[in-house]
């Protein structure tokens, strides 16, 4: 199960998996479909009474790749039954199933609990936003592929504006190439600023210190206590919230970097704290309200 926001490359990864299997295991049967295609095939099979052919199409594969399963949340119970039994049939024969979603299985409220538990039994991995250096590398790779000379300062300017959508990153290079060709001039920072006016969005520049100050103020604690090692329940909760927000809002900060902020803790402690908050958010309305309030303050809303 691969999940993450739109534009981060989930579909690309599914196709890469399919291509890898074709190239290295040519005897294996591979099928890639979107959830919408699966649904349309299912409806057609019901209408034409060809359910057996549907089972053969989906259940006789060695590798089944299904994209965007979040769209099954709003579908009827009968469709849920079909995809559940397809999963069971393939899993029972030791076949490979790879699915993508824009959310973790824990957050897919509209799917059957038994199907969610099946998904959680496998490998569940998140595609996170690429950090700044990765975004710059993506831009240079795209430029090289299109035969475009992209100056470093232009790549950095674009990468600072587009933080969470690889498609938009790559599209900016294509647009720049078109503008440069039309104007018969090389790509420059001035050209980018003049013609990529709607690119990405400027975000409030945040630092870990700011997040610590806002969190400590919200909970009525001191920054030193949150960063320290005391294990009182209110302190631990605030500490985990601060770790979560630094990880969530500062995508250039790795777990080891965050650990150093909190008096040099082991990075596994930070991972544990962040995961505890993530697990509670879908089921704890009070915590969700706290996090949303803190995010609004940190992103420039709600300051007095």
- Briefly, what CATH class of the largest domain? Alpha Beta
Order of helices and strands: EHEHHEHEHEHHHHHHHHHH
CATH architecture tag of the largest domain: 3-Layer(aba) Sandwich
The unreliable regions are: none
Strand order of the largest sheet: 2-3-4-1-5
What is the tally of beta strands? 5
Tell me the helix content: 55-70%
Query: How many domains in all?
Result: 3
In terms of DSSP E residues, the strand content is 5-15%
| pLDDT averaged over residues | 87
Main sheet properties: 5 strands, parallel
Number of helical stretches of at least 4 residues: 15
Radius of gyration: 23 Å
The fold-level CATH name of the largest domain is Rossmann fold
CATH homology superfamily name of the largest domain: P-loop containing nucleotide triphosphate hydrolases
Structural class: alpha/beta
**Overall geometry:** flat
- Distance N to C terminus: 43 Å
Account of the 3D structure:
The protein is an alpha/beta fold and 304 residues long. The chain has 15 helices and five strands. It has a five-stranded parallel β-sheet with strand order 2-3-4-1-5, sandwiched between helices. Strand 3 (63-67), helix 4 and strand 4 (96-101) form a beta-alpha-beta unit.
């Amino acid at each position: 199960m691969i999940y993450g926001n739109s534009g981060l490359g989930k579909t690309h990864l599914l196709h890469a998996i399919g291509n890898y299997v074709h190239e290295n295991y040519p005897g294996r049967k591979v099928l890639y479909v979107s959830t919408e295609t699966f649904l349309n095939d299912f409806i057609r099979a019901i209408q034409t009474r060809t359910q057996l052919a549907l089972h053969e199409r989906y259940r006789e594969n060695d590798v089944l790749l299904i994209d965007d399963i979040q769209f099954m949340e709003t579908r009827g119970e009968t469709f849920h039954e079909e995809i559940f039994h397809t999963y069971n049939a393939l899993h029972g024969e030791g076949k490979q199933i790879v699915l993508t979603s824009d959310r973790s299985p824990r957050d897919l409220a509209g799917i059957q609990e038994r199907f969610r538990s099946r998904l959680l039994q496998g490998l569940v991995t998140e595609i996170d936003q690429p950090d700044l250096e990765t975004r710059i590398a993506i831009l240079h790779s795209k430029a090289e592929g299109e035969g475009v000379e992209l100056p470093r300062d232009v790549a950095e300017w674009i990468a600072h504006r587009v933080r969470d959508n690889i498609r938009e990153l790559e599209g900016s290079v294509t647009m720049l190439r078109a503008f440069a060709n039309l104007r018969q001039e090389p790509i420059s920072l001035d050209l980018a600023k003049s013609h990529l006016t709607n690119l990405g969005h400027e975000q409030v520049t945040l630092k870990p210190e700011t997040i610590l100050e806002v969190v400590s103020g919200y909970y009525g604690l001191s920054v030193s206590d949150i960063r320290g090692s005391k294990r009182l329940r209110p302190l631990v909760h605030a500490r985990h919230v601060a770790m979560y927000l630094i990880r969530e809002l500062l995508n250039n900060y790795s777990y080891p970097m965050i650990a150093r902020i909190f008096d040099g803790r082991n990075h596994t402690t930070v991972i544990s704290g962040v995961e505890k908050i993530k697990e509670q958010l879908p089921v704890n309305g009070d915590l969700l309200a706290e996090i949303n309030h803190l995010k609004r303050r940190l992103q420039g809303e709600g300051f007095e």
